[in-house]
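Sample A.
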Amino acid sequence: MVRVLVASLLVLAQAAQAQIALPPVRLPGLPAVRLPVDVDKTLPAVTGALDPGRLQDLRKLRALDLIRRHPTVIEPDPNGAPIIRSEVLVFSPSEALLDNARAAGFTVAREQVLEGLDERIVVLRAPGHTSTRRALQRLRALDPAGAYDFNHVYMESGTGSSAAVAGAAPEGGDPGAGVVADARARLGLIDGGVDTAHPVLRDSVIHQHGCSGSQTPGAHGTAVASLLVGRSARFHGAAPGSELYAADVYCGVPTGGAVDAVADAFAWLVRERVPVINVSLVGPPNVMLERIVRMVIARGHLVVAAVGNDGPAAPPLYPAAYPDVVGVTAVDARQRALIEAERGRQVKFAAPGADMAAANSSQTFSMVRGTSFASPIVAGLLAAQMSEPDKAAAERAVADLARRAIDLGSPGPDAVYGYGLVGADLRPEPALVSLRE
């Protein structure tokens, strides 16, 4: 039984070679497993055979691989989640606290002023050979009332198959044929970089932020962006033609997805007054991230987030599990919740997240699977009802979408589907992957 479990996890880990914008997981010392050609069709079969309680091991393997490849800058926290080595985040510290920290040997690595939120995050570097865990303990002892935490690294919450066909992007025809675009809608995206040259995105208005002004397109960010605002003769996202504000928090570096980068992205979207913000990233609870998310929501913004793919028995992932965040799970073409999708009170809606295509980099489409790709569909539907950040309008938008949801599972809201399925007709057809024009 143990051998079967290890083999199953290895198949999943190697399937993560197709994980969009992520490198393959290396497991030295374990026998190689030959993957079938059609990884996307194999993955559901493997996850169905695997104990759902162990699905979270796949993300742990990805985290372990990240740590192994970059041990000088990434290490695990006490629970195994990746953090930036020797860094501790401090939320809006006083000068007296910083003086005390410097006296204890800490140095200020950098400071992030969160314009729009009227706060700041200071990144302190641990002194000498002090471990990051010990450094966090020392700072909390210096200032028990302060807010301190690790600089956690958050990961994408979805997979994409390698079955992408060059030249597959549909060209020609009316870009808006068959769809109704709300040009007033504005959407925010916190993810990897977006390939704005992709045919389904090149006519969209996309504002980009992060990476010191450079652009580092990523397949995961491109896929999610296409499901938000993409449009062509044969493809359209949930809010085609809407204006997209895309913050890249990865930038192609090992420390991509760190909390201070995510905080900066949220602050930018608040300054730009973008009413609905999609986050397809997952990770552990973090004091800084929770404070930022609460502040953003308090200002009337809707935060929509993927609930994650660690399995139905796994602990909640964040930011989806924070109060008032609109957590989204994923269903397949038969309207069944994905076996890997998390469950719990954080689930507010279900949307298509498998058996469908999305834009990939290099002008192609890929099959995608995971809660990452259901979240933008919900965000797009909500954005059609909000022109500006407004707390009352946000509550009305969620309530209205809940009334229109298709109730699945147990009657009423439940831990598997939330209020129910929305956007069932917005699943991009898998045939796009092999389309040539």
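Sample B, a different protein:
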Amino acid sequence: MLPDSRTRIRRMGVTSDDMIWYGDWSNGKLSRFDPKTGEVKSYEGPSGPMSQPYGMTVIDDAIWYVESNTRPNALVRFDPKTEKFQSWLIPGGGGIVRHMMPTAGGQGIAISMSGLSKVGIVDILPPNSN
């Protein structure tokens, strides 16, 4: 059982240390669940409690998700090692990104923009590249 009864999980991802990450849609948080201890740690998303995290994927242990209640939607990257967020507005708005997954080789993210009936590809650069 999760500690906050208002939590509404939309999507999940798992990092190499077996931590389960999920977007808490109703509270605007990114949360980590440790299945070994049952501990939950939550992080306030960059756009605050009304951001409604939705689509999510994990690439190289970084958490990527979309804040669906921002206009336009925002693509967010969270680095668990530094506990820092980065975010970018999605060109064309996004229209609520419900699903995301890495492209072959992990150099991009395929996103389904359900409100727009479109599929988008986000090219990502490896950390520390210019």
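Observation for Sample B: The chain has a mean pLDDT of 92.
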